[in-house]
Sequence to fold (456 residues):
Amino acid sequence: MKRPLSIRARFLLVSLIVVPLALALAALFMTSIFSSNLEGRLEDELKGHINTIAGSIRVSADGGLEHPLGLMDRRFSQAYSGLYWQIGDPPQPALYRSESLWDTSLPRPADLPDDGAVHRYVANGPENTRLIVLERQIMVSAPSGLKPVQISVAIDTKALDDASRGFTLEILPYLAGLAAFLIGASLVQVVYGLKPLADLTKGLDRIRERHSGRLIGALPAEFVPVEQAVNRLLETQAQSLSKARARAGDLAHGLKTPLTVLSNDALTLHERGHQDLAEEIEQLVQLMRGHVEHELARSRIVTNADMRQTDANVETIIGQIVKTLQRTPKAEALEWQVDINAPPDVPVDAQDLRELIGNLTENAVKWAVGQVSITWKDGRLIVADDGPGVDPEKIRSMTERGVRLDSQTPGSGFGLSIVQEICEVYGLVLSIENRQGSGLMTTVLFKEIATNYPGN
Fold:
């Protein structure tokens, strides 16, 4: 299943989309405002020209219009300059025109109202230009009475378009810088805002690595319910595990007393000459004791690696086991070779590692003739003896529950099966092979640790 995007990636992706889009809309909005304001100023300028033209209109004695004078803007005298005027009456709308119109005239919509107000419309101008035209009809005194006069003033929109385009190009670098700043600020906000999640993850990692048994640290108020819930869950889990181990231990210890009584009864039967019955009871007692010890050992093994209470120190546990076994009659007579090369704390519960190394070492002591060696190197634990070894065809079956290759030697046959179960819980690799010469060598590979050694 494909893993979804992280929260940081989602926030960054949203910023990369939303910030440029918002700034693009802002650019359009600002350009529109700029264009509207500039167009308003141009229209005010055109209205001023209309008023100037209206003030300079004169009517001759025969009732005809005279050419207006006093128009000072030089653009009116330059051909196709972009600023134009035109006056006339209803029969002749283009009676007089500015020199800038040259041989053209300003078009007038047929449906334009003659109410004396200034009307605005857009028309095509000289050389395929686009014009904003303001037109007003005024009434002037003539010998025959009031005479309607139409005044039109127009300006090319090219100047407006160029100004709007220039304004947009000028603000683009600033908008790009603002976009970079906002995206960077969003990233900082995400990193800072999600820092409590990173702290929470570190706290959970510390619990998983058994460096802490609770979530501790100053978390924001929003995470207090999560912290309390996790701590309650950890406490409940620890209590349940402790109770389960205690019950298994009580059950196992409760069965040991009846088994001891049965064993004594078997001795009594031996003394009275009931050899067959006594041997049968002894075999049953031994089998039941093996099962009890096995279940007692299993009750102490965690169900998964993340439930371990602490990490374990290899050197300390090996030292404790060797010191204890050397007090037994068999181990006391053996030569011990212990070589531990820079042992780390391994991610295995101390009790489980003690059970694992203890079973391997006890098995080596059981079969050793004169020597037992324990070695830790490059993430590998090696326990070896100089005993008779094992038939290669039977090595695979040694880790099966209750399998004993020699029924004459004391033992339950569950030791190596317990070791195998511990290895499965923690992802360790167990291998058993005969040594060159004589003896058996058992190797446990701690994969996570071995990968950190050069050459592995």
In short: Residues 248 and 254 are 10 Å apart (CA to CA). The chain has ten helices and twelve strands. Residues 401-413 have pLDDT under 50 and may be disordered. The domain at 309-450 is CATH 3.30.565.10 (Heat Shock Protein 90).
